[in-house]
Amino acid sequence: AWQKPDAIKNGVVIWLITVVLGLLLRNLIFDRGTATPFIIVATVVLGVLLVGRRLAMRVIR
To answer: For position 2, what pLDDT does the model report?
Structure first.
């Protein structure tokens, strides 16, 4: 990711790892279930921020 920060593949991998680890940590720390709407919103927002930026960079170039 450091050598090709605008690679979409890198963004997707980082996005999926971030979603899974973030939701696992949230579940472990708060020791409660995670609501489905929260999972959906977190996944979409992280996708837009981590992958959408890379797509925008590719369109601009």
So the answer is: 65
The residue count of the chain comes to: 61
Low-confidence stretches of the chain (pLDDT < 50) are: none
In this prediction the pTM is 0.78
- The three-point CA angle 42-52-44 to 5° equals 20
**46: nearest Cα among 4, 8, 21, 18:** 18
Sign of CA dihedral 40, 43, 45, 47: negative
